[in-house]
Write a structure and sequence with these properties.
The chain has helices at residues 3-13, 66-74, 102-115, 117-123, 143-151, 189-194, 231-234, 268-287, 291-302; strands spanning 19-27, 36-43, 49-55, 78-82, 131-141, 155-156, 174-178, 200-201, 209-214, 240-245, 308-312. The chain is α/β, with parallel strands linked by helices. The strands form 2 sheets. The protein has a 9-stranded mixed beta sheet, with helices on both faces. Helix 2 crosses helix 8 (268-287), helix 3 crosses helix 5 (143-151) and helix 8 packs antiparallel against helix 9. The longest helix has 20 residues, at 268-287. The chain is globular.
Length: 313
């Protein structure tokens, strides 16, 4: 077994590792108006670390989503969390001229992070030389999932219904899309008018991904029911898995943070399931080592009181 696989196997099988984290790491971003602030987290030891770039939901920042970011880092991943321009921590007003373009600037943030891995690696003491740049995943929640999905191949339809720019990134080998909104056919009038980026096509989202949806996630942006959030699985080609969580609303049990105000369906058990399944999925997708993923899927299927269902294609 190679040194890389040995390190990752130890992270998978052993107890959670001590995590080191640095924030803010500032990346120069000409034309953005504000430089890009990023949090970088990784296990204190180990080499050959795969990379997860995580895009936060509306209003959040690099300081959110600790239940996922800390867990992934403690189990052998380097986790990078950019703060997008919609973050409440930046206080950019709605009338800011960048507002209509923030959805595109979010995607550029994710690409910039990948472009600047050398800078990010050098910013955290003890991290140099420990990354595996051939194993990169993107993840995101809500608007962050929409941002991440474009790097996997999803495209935004223009006003004529034609797919817009291809913003996929070949460096990204897998994705985890949490509470990703569906097709734009059933948007309420306000969303249709103000959120043009919510008209996606998943026809070219070919990169492997795990989609996570809650069966009680009723969005005020769509006239559809919670099944709207399963569209990314239904309408995308290639290798995909769908985790549908029972009784889960948009926060999926509390992934933005422990006891945060916007969590309407607090469930530590549900968050723990997401932690385990996303970690197992990413290891399978990035390394081709499917044993942990199969074991996690089997455990969910055989659970007498399951918290959700899993399907794959």
């Amino acid at each position: 077994m190679s040194e890389t696989k040995t390190a990752n196997a130890q992270q998978t099988a052993g107890a959670p590792a001590t995590v080191i984290s640095a924030r803010p790491v500032v990346l120069s971003a000409p034309g953005r108006g504000d430089d890009l602030q990023v949090r970088v987290s990784a296990p204190a030891t180990g080499t050959g670390l795969p990379v997860i770039v995580f895009s936060h939901g509306f209003g959040w920042s690099m300081d959110g989503y600790a239940p996922l970011a800390d867990f992934w880092a403690a189990h052998g991943f380097m986790v990078i969390q950019p703060t997008h321009l919609d973050s409440r921590t930046l206080g950019i007003p709605a009338e800011d001229p960048r507002t209509p373009r923030i959805w595109r600037l979010r995607i550029e943030d994710l690409t910039r992070v990948l472009d600047e891995l050398d800078v990010l690696e050098a910013s955290v003491p003890g991290l140099a030389g420990r990354l595996d740049r051939d194993r990169v995943a993107v993840a995101g929640h809500s608007w962050g999932a929409q941002s991440a999905s474009t790097l996997l191949g999803a495209r935004v339809l223009d006003s004529d219904g034609k797919p817009g720019e291809d913003m996929s990134d070949p460096r990204v080998k897998a994705g985890v899309l949490l509470a990703l909104t569906g097709l734009g056919d059933d948007l309420v009038p306000f969303a249709a008018e103000h959120f043009p980026f919510m008209k996606p096509s998943f026809d070219t989202m070919t990169t492997p991904a795990l989609i996570v949806a809650g069966d009680k996630d009723q969005s005020h942006l769509s006239t559809r029911g919670p099944d709207w959030f399963t569209d990314p699985y239904t309408y995308s080609p290639g290798s995909k898995s769908l985790l549908t969580l029972f009784d889960a609303e948009h926060s999926l049990g509390g992934i933005p943070g422990h006891e945060v105000a916007e969590t309407t369906d607090a469930s530590p058990a549900r968050v723990a399931l997401i932690q385990r399944l996303t970690t197992a999925y990413l290891r399978s997708a990035l390394y081709g080592e499917a044993a942990a993923w199969k074991a996690a899927a089997t455990a969910l299927e055989e659970d007498p009181n399951p918290l959700g269902t899993l399907q794959s294609k």
